[in-house]
Design a protein that fits this description.
CATH topology: Nuclear Transport Factor 2, Chain: A
Strand order of the largest sheet: 3-4-5-6
Structural class: alpha+beta
Number of strands: 6
Helix content: 25-40%
Number of domains: 1
Strand content: over 45%
Largest sheet: 4 strands, antiparallel
Radius of gyration: 20 Å
Distance between the termini: 65 Å
Number of helices: 4
CATH class: Alpha Beta
Order of helices and strands: HHHEEHEEEE
Amino acid sequence: MKKLLSITIFLVMATMAYAQQPDISPERKRAIDSLAMEKVKDLSRYISIIGSKDTPFSEANRVIDRAMELFSDGAQMGVSSLNTKEVKYYGVRKYFERLMALNYDQVTIEWFNIHYISDLVRQPDGKYVGVITIYQKFTGINDDGMKYVDITKKDITVYVERKETQIGGRIIGFWDVLLGDIRVTETRPAN
């Protein structure tokens, strides 16, 4: 009986905490969606800069630090290839370091067809989670003419949560958007 009472109290408290989290108005949701898409586009630019062999090492490291600010702690990036069916996942920083070190003389990475496939859904902890899909065209070329090209479809988890900051002695609430895991869902040859 005590265990049942404890579970009931826990569920009531969890429900009350959930109910205290503010809902997102339609206008605010559009602003959050826009911010999430902007962060994904920023990541696309950062990946292009980091992967480019024309980017100086110090600049690539500076861009990696900026790109890391887009992600939630522990986020992972999927890596695939036409040469294997296995998808490998790396921590975000490790992914960027590996991208910088790719053994090609020229690397071009382009993202296209970026769109939401899953609307923001409220979680029991008050955070919202959604999924944005992107397509990535990767081209690696060596000086001897060897060329590798693929197109990868990736799903990016997006986390939205209410945060507070203090400005001029006042507590200001705001919605923050962070990127989570980036999962590979398909890799195919480029046509």
